[in-house]
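Example 3.2
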Amino acid sequence: MNGTIPTVIVVGSGPTGLLLAGDLATAGVPVTVVEKRPQGIGNLSRAFVLHARTLEQFDARGLADELEAVGRPLGRFRLYGRLSLDLSTLPSRFNHLLVLPQYEVEKVLERRALEAGAQFRYETEVTGLTQDAQGVTIELRGPGGGSETLRAAYVVGADGMRSTVRNAIGLSFPGRSVIRSVMLADVRVTEEPGELLTFDAVGDAFAFLVPFGDGYHRVVCWDRGRERPDDAPVGLDEIRETTRRALGRDFGMHDPRWMSRFHSDERQAPAYRVGRVFLAGDAAHVHTPAGAQGMNTGLQDAANLSWKLAAVLKGHAADALLDTYQAERHPIGRTVLRSSGGIVRAAMARRPWTIALRTAFAAFLGTVGPARRKALAQVTGIGYRYPAPRGSHRFTGRRVPDVALAGDARLHEAMRGGRFVLITPEPYRAGDGREDRLAVERWASDRRTTVLVRPDGYAAWAADVADTRAIEAAVAAHVG
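Structure, written as tokens:
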């Protein structure tokens, strides 16, 4: 560490913490990441899917093409055996799922954070936290067992389900366990599955299988009749049998490099902000793996919070802007808990009437286009919107797609560096020292709408007709 005093301390170096640290460092905010694990990206991670909205966030940071080159796109997947969902109709450049292990995401995000100047403290554990009106002090235990304190203006707990930060600020984590004794394993197979992502549920068992691209496949399976404690040994024979029951065959699994059990909870912190301390990712919300929304939701938390912290710390916005993190992200976390829980409960259905309901729901999604599009928009993240003030333009709070701009440019390219983007048909100069945080662009078409896009890709303000005075007022209010 070079001795720079951090303005923000991020606790946890998973995808959420890494994206947040990289954004802050790119914005010129001194940031230190505290991580209790040793340095080095592990390859035994649970998440393995990036959704469209997350890929859009990576594109706005110049990272999507690199991840696309490593992962494997999936344009269609099956649900409940019969329902096949086509992602090619998504209104996004990324009209697919990208299958790749979480550790590949972490590699890219860690490199970006380091190149931007973020500092890392590995093998360092948070043992206490206090805050006052001026800042936050955290107590640390380093790799040699020694104690020290570190102080910053703000702290973000991105330290997972058992968050030390959340416990230190006295927040509860209400909820319950939904599934117990879920088995995980990384295995080789002698018979390649016919689909990139294989999932099904039969009776009391479900399983899904997905390749890592390095010769191993991740298998996740569960048997209602064999629920055991998380620390109970896992055998390959048990995994094979459960997979055969759910998928009809075990694909010749062999040579496991890792096997484990875990229980899946649905929990959400009542607040994502307490004073100068914030929660993000699994520290704020956990849910079942159904829909592969966990890592993606945490990354969206980070994208929402990072630009707001940078704006406040650099004097471009009042502290009240940070309260919108709770207002915008907490309802979405609650929705994700409900949607992922609904998927897994439907997959676990065993009574005749619940099975019939699941069959009817699958048929409904398969035949009713608007319902199917809404469901896909929610799971992939592109359908969420944030609250807008009464009387706002209909675009305000909505995700702005990667629209074409004049000069053969794209919105996501203009956003790089964490900038606001003003898309307007009217002449306007950023001026007044805003050049580093506001890009002014024109539509590639003859569209007349003016839109001010936030650094996280949502519309801060819009108008069908706007003169220079109205644009300046909007820029002053949102960019500072």
